[in-house]
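User: I'm preparing a small set of examples for a lab meeting where we compare how different chains pack in three dimensions. I only have the primary sequence for this one, and I'd like the structure in token form so I can line it up with the others. Please keep the answer compact; I'll paste it straight into my notes.
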Amino acid sequence: MFKSKHPILLLNEIKWRFDLNRCKVYYIHRGAPGDVRMIEGSIIRIEYDSQMIFERKRRS
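Assistant: Understood. Below is the structure token output for the 60-residue chain.
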């Protein structure tokens, strides 16, 4: 369904190909039940003069 694998590229692909307000984004969140959390696309705000920073951590 998606070509992108990196989080920034994936969110950009969703923004241009789909209605972000109708999407749900699931992501790894250690400590959450099942280590997964979900947010509604309607609460994601895109600011054009800002950067998204993602922290990479390896699973052990």
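A couple of notes for your slides: The chain has one helix and two strands. Residues 7-43 form one domain.

User: Perfect, thanks.
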